[in-house]
Amino acid sequence: MKKVLDHIGVAVRDLEGSINFYINVLGGELFDRYRSEAAGVESEIAIIDIEGARTELLMPTNNTTSPIARFIKQKGKGVHHIAYRVDNLDIAIENLKKADIRVMEHTRRINKHGRRLIYLNPADTEGTIIEYCDYP
């Protein structure tokens, strides 16, 4: 199955400062900005587009339950995840299971842009948080 880089998620402490950097220094454009209080997300998100390449800036909105807050506490701010677009998320998950790669079922969801997504277990990906997603 074909996989294409969809976006990179970056954990930040200061969303405004990060947006300014991505726009004023890197020449990006703010594509969208929204807040998600869904369990397992609990973040304010800014999507920056730089010449067709997307970066999601993720700032936790709850410092006790947000997975982004936990990530920042453990590893500091910086790259949180890499997302790959697949043709069909359901088939991709089945292929992962056949390869003994675990997915984190509790992360499976549809975001506000209609993107279906799930995270792979970092224990099976050399420690990198990888998202698979599709846009049905």
Automatic annotation (TrEMBL):
Short name of one Pfam family: Glyoxalase_4
GO BP term (any one): L-methylmalonyl-CoA metabolic process
Keywords, comma-separated and alphabetical: Metal-binding
Residue stretches making up the VOC domain: 4-135
Family: Belongs to the methylmalonyl-CoA epimerase family.
InterPro entries in the cross-refs: Glyas_Bleomycin-R_OHBP_Dase (IPR029068), MeMalonyl-CoA_epimerase (IPR017515), MMCE/EMCE_epimerase (IPR051785), VOC_core (IPR037523)
A GO term for molecular function: metal ion binding
Protein name per Swiss-Prot or TrEMBL: Methylmalonyl-CoA epimerase
